[in-house]
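In the current project phase, the collection of sequences with tokenised folds has grown. A representative record is quoted in full directly below:
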Amino acid sequence: MLPDADAIVSALRDLQRRIRDVVVASRRTTDLHAVSHQSSADTIYKLDLLIEPVIEAFCEEWGQRLPMVVVAEGLEPETGRVFPVGASEADAPVRIIIDPVDGTRGLMYDKRAAWSLAGAAPNTGMQTRLSDIEVAVMTELPTSKMAWGDVLWAIKGRGAARGARVRQ
């Protein structure tokens, strides 16, 4: 079982709000569709490069209170990075799995909304699977045409919830 599932939901919602804010602010930037590089897992676009530092800074701060392993697109190593820096994987009770922008291609051309997805599972090392997730949070990343975005979350055994729609 995860320690304090409600606190994890709150933290993941805060992280995704920050990601959404970067996405909305990035609309003033050109060439978001430019390819930065290829990883073994995905194509990394300029839009992704704007979000990676947000994830790293947030997880470093959060990791001071709750050591964690974070697996996220674009974050190296792809097998997971331990936060805070200097902690060992064995010290981390939780593994966070993040797809910061699920639907990058449609969003970077401002054609359709995307989602920021995150799940938290008890850390069982490399054996941790999506089926182990006990807390999940998803935040809509709206296009410029959308005035509102949804935030949804669930805690294993407690059902799902929806926050107030968030105005851009």
